[in-house]
Amino acid sequence: MKKKGEMKKVVKDKLNDGEHDDPWWWLVQKGIKSSFLCVSVFALFVRVAVGLHPYSGANTPPKFGDYEAQRHWMEITLNLPAKDWYRNSSVNNLSYWGLDYPPLTAYQSYIHGVFLKTFDPDSVALFSSRGYESYLGKLLMRWTVLSSDVLIFFPAVLYFVLVYRSMRLGMGQNSDVAWHIAMILLNPCLILIDHGHFQYNCISLGLTLAAIAAALSQKDLVASVLYCLALNHKQMSAYFAPAFFSYLLGKCLKNKNPVLEVAKLGLIVVGTFAVVWWPYLHSKEAALAVLSRLAPFERGIYEDYVANFWCTSSVLVKWKKLYTTQSLRTLSLAATLLTCLPSMVQQVLAPSSKGFLYALLNSSFSFYLFSFQVHEKSVLLPLLPLTLLALEERQSLLWLTHFAMFSMFPLLHRDKLVLAYIALYALFILVYFAPGGPCGRCNSSKTRDHSQTTKRGMEFISSIAFHPLVMGFLGLCSLILHVIYLTMRPPNKYPFLFEAVIMLICFSQFVLFTLYFNSKQWMLSKHLTSKDKQKKII
Amino acid sequence: MKQLLWFFGIATTVKLLLIPSYHSTDLEVHRHWLAITHSLPLSQWYYDETSEWTLDYPPFFAYFERFLSVFANLIDPRIVHLHHGLNYKANSAIYFQRISVIVSDLFLLYGVYISTRNLPSLKRNLVWVLLIWSPGLLIVDHLHFQYNGFLFGWLLLSISFLAQGKDLMGGFIFAVLLCFKHLFAVAAPVYFVYLLRHYCRGGLVRGFARLSAIGAVVVAVFAAAYGPFVYHGQIQQVIRHMFPFGRGLCHAYWAPNFWVFYIMLDKGIAFLLRKVGFNIPTPVASFTGGLVGDASPFAVLPRITPMTTFIMVLLALSPCLFKTWRDPRPRLIARSVAYAYTCGFLFGWHVHEKASLHISIPLALVAVESLEDAKHYFLLSIVSCYSLFPLLYEAQEYPIKVLLLLLHTILMWFCFSALFPKNIAAKGSLQDDKKSTQYESKGSSRTAAEKQRFELGWVAKSYLLGVVVVEIWGQFLHPYLLGDKLPFLPLMLISMYCAIGIVYSWIWQLKWIIIFS
After folding, report:
1. Distance from CA of A423 to the nearest CA of B (A)
2. Which of A97, A374, A423, B366 is least enclosed, having the fewest CB within 10 Å?
3. Cis peptide before B302 (omega within 30 of 0)
4. Is residue A519 part of a domain?
5. SS3 assignment, position B420
6. Assigned domain for A1 exists
7. Is B10–A431 a contact, with Cβ atoms under 8 angstroms apart?
8. How many CB pairs below 8 Å do chains A and B form together?
9. How many Å separate Cα B438 from the centre of its chain?
10. What is the tally of structural domains in chain A?
């Protein structure tokens, strides 16, 4: 069977050209950097095009949406001294989109505010700019996201790909690398949330990505600095904390002088935090005031219809009524840590590059599923390590991206981004199945790659989970649900019926995949540790 | 085929993303035509004056609009309402029209498929990149709004039929195309001479039989298009609408053609003469105003009439016609057609800058044939795309057009340098290709052997650098340094600068036709 497929491929190639078996040869022959250039210009173009679409809360006074929140932060940071940014005062009404992200976001807002002020001073004027919306204002705001993306996320991707390539974790072909770059850069969820809905996830995710790349290339100190910066841009980056912690700790423990290594890392983390938090370190109250803004416990354990454990199980168990917020907080923290634990233990015991990527995936999924105050958009965090593993986890990437998109569909529908959603989803599928790409080639090579990395047991599980029939059925279901959501009105008795169904389906898939990835991570340690050790000796 | 569909799919998703972007008044023009053809009987199509956007395309296009209006009516009847629909800007109208362009691009897909069927796979990929991902078509059709992709599908189809030796079919499709958009008629002399010499040969009797066959086909097509209007006795009205010579020598944005130099020369001489002391009155009429009144828009130089431009186009075209007459070859038809459009673009009356697509699209088919072709196409394609920049003048689309051109340049660079690599190992396959292209003369293959590698000379490099300089001047330095003074200067610079490139392309093509064919 395998041979037949290969024969077919050879024959086909001969018919086509005979010389290059890779249809993307012309694009990738100049090396990684030039294919990165090409893909990134296209990715940037797509981002600009998505920016033409509406943003969240356009023309919806009085609260508007995330766009207004970001603009308001620029207004606040630009016009008030740093010590007043997080404080409720007569000029800073915290109930109207008060700043609730860490200081690095505030600094970023300040810089962007300066940019906006030079071209459109009205858009960031104190008070009078509340709910300010204009053609130029929208453009300038969009361009701030674009520039952050280009300056932080894109270089981070290049850095990561170069590191990943030099470690030979992926396959050999140049076109596979180009495909990998495209998978990271053209992730539809990230583009839709940042350039459609309007947020700056590219900054925190870009910093995290750079940190991952640094960690993989053994620059642990650089990695900790970058990760602390990510954490200080968006507290949600804490989803990755267990993985970073355990991987770095595991590596320190392997060292001759574990205490010294840990001390070095600790010092650098404290130092980075001190620099970022400098304006708030003069008194204990100031720092605590900022800290309390960052943890909005009063907003409840979940929001809207997010496909995580608490929200899904609330169909049966009314968590919000049964327990106080205080006890829910402890409960969710315990659940999160408990589910993170297996992957943390694995990394502490046997830190490995691949294992680290899986650990990132697992810890972010545990946070998404079990932590307090999770938003639909948080699914971006598990998606990042998944795209990094694109070459290993091809089918999961397709499948999970599908459900991540699906879980955000109600949100994007509210933002009137359905057209961009459809277009980007189609674009993702097309690029994923690019002819000549890793998933567009003959099946024979795919199964061969798979058998190298997985054991028989795993193959059995994945053969069931990825069975064409199962996938087809679930795919069809979600397609029908999309259509139903767009065309039909839910019964009056259950106004959020469709959202709940979407949430249930996505939750079931996310849980399955968390289990799958956890077991995969543990499988790795069995036959990868020996390899890793060999590499280290060399 | 699967790969071609993939290319097309990527382009389609991008087009979908661009739906909310800026669109020109052409959207309203086409919407109004939907309304005219839907609400009025055929006999009043070319008489309707409800809006200033009267129907000025040939009848097949009107039938096409009639066909679309059926669906438009199903989606939102107001789109096709003659009065209530005026300046209707609802999402339904915009989405419907945008999507109709995207769907009609299937003709482009088919044309590209037919014309690249027999190419080796690498070259085929490259032609797809040039055509399916053409930034010019994207800007004109999916941002500015027009149906050019659909029309170029027909043109490519016709050219490839001729190139395959199916002359009758090629002639038929070109006749159909002419009844869609008469702007394509600039290439009609080339088609005429070619078909006459290539198809109608083989003795007097056989030649005459074939001549009558193709004549019958063309007459049948034109009868299908214009018949109903002849029946209603409106043919003069149709022609008057189709050829509005009331418009000026230049379009609102000056197309980068020969007349830009002519105007500049006129201004320059007038300026100098005034300095010397002559009393030269400043002309009242503008170049875009047309033939209204008797005033000449020129201060010194003789005035240009539509007749002058017509003669100049024919003169410029004559070497090509002569060559085609002497030696009609199927492989050369794409070049001849492109050359005809180049002449029309350079010397024509009221040329629109969008017409530069007429040059760059057919030439894409032959751009992969030799190193020289690739070098020429690289330059031409950038100039042609850059000359479209003034169409999208709003800030929102600025990054889009710049990134499109940048992406196109990068892709072309990769394409051509993969096709013409430095090492000799790849030469084998190249020479195979050369054998198949028989017309390749010794001279060109020798030079190609000496310099296999795709790289630009310093002239081309500095010219392209100049494009960047002109753009930076127009966008950033001009408003900063001069403020509101001389507001026309940036656009004029773009026209002038692109005109240099187009004139170069014209001379290059002319040289090619004279020397190599």
Report:
1. 5
2. A97
3. no
4. yes
5. coil
6. no
7. yes
8. 100
9. 28
10. 1
Count of C-beta atoms within a 10 Å radius of residue A173: 18
B415 and A26: CB-CB below 8 Å?
A: yes
Of B400, B426, B429, the CB nearest to A49: B400
Each residue's pLDDT tens digit, A185-238: 999 999 999 999 999 999 999 999 999 999 999 999 999 999 999 999 999 999
For residue B82, give the 3-state DSSP assignment: coil
Report the predicted TM-score, pTM, of the whole model to 2 decimal places: 0.89
Residue A188 lies in a domain: yes
Tokens of A162: 């170069």
CB of A20 less than 8 A from some CB of B: yes
Q: Is the pLDDT of residue A399 over 70?
A: yes
SS3 readout for B224-288: HHHHHHHHCCCHHHHHHHHCCCCCCCECCCCCCCHHHHHHHHHHHHHHHHHHHCCCCCCCCCCCC
Amino acid at A378: S
List the single residue in A with minimal CA-CA distance to B433.
A17
Q: Residues 16..55 of B with a Cβ closer than 8 Å to A: which?
A: 16-21
Q: Do B9 and A426 touch (CB under 8 A)?
A: yes
CA-closest candidate to residue B59, choices B240, B226, B237: B226
State how far residue B393 is from chain A, nearest Cα, in angstroms.
Answer: 14
pLDDT band at A369 (very low <50, low <70, confident <90, very high): very high
For the residues B157-164, what does the mean pLDDT come to?
A: 93
Residue A364 tokens, joined: 């972010």
Residue range(s) defining the domain that contains residue A50 = 6-440+448-537
* Residue A472 or residue A527, greater confidence: A472
Which residue on chain B is closest to A423 by alpha carbon?
B13
Q: Nearest Cα to B387, choosing from B486, B265, B507, B503?
A: B503
Domain assignment present for A411: yes
Whether the CB of A286 is below 8 Å from some CB of chain B: the reply is no
A379 near B CB under 8 A = no
Q: What percent of chain B has pLDDT over 70?
A: 90
**Chain A residues close to B120, C-beta within 8 Å:** 17
Distance from CA of B27 to the nearest CA of A (A): 18
From B67, B23, B62, select the one nearest B241 (Cα to Cα): B62
pLDDT tens digits, B431-463: 444 444 433 344 444 444 445 678 888 888 999
Top mean-pLDDT range of A462-466, A519-523, B395-399: B395-399
Q: Around Cβ A76, how many Cβ atoms within 10 Å?
A: 26
| Cα distance between residue A46 and residue A427, in whole Å | 10
Q: Give me A71's structure tokens.
A: 């603009």
Rounded distance between C-alpha atoms, residue B257 and residue B499, angstroms: 5
Q: Which residues of B touch A34 (CB under 8 A)?
A: 414
Interface check B14 vs A, CB under 8 A: yes
B419 interfacial to chain A (CB closer than 8 Å):
yes
**Alpha-carbon distance values, A152 to A203, A214, B157, B242 (Å):** 6, 14, 46, 54
The closest CB to that of B407, out of A42, A422, A426, belongs to A42
Q: CA A40, CA A46: separation in Å to the nearest integer?
A: 10
What one-character-per-residue DSSP string does A306-329 give? -SSHHHHHTTTS-HHHHS-HHHHH
